[in-house]
Amino acid sequence: QVQLVESGGGLVQPGGSLRLSCAASGFLFSSYDMSWYRQAPGKERELVADITSFDGSTTKYADSVKGRFTISRDNAKNTVYLQMNSLKPEDTAVYYCSARALRVYWGQGTQVTVSS
Question: What distances in angstroms separate CA 64 from CA 1, 25, 50, 106, one per listed residue?
Answer without folding.
Answer: 34, 30, 14, 22
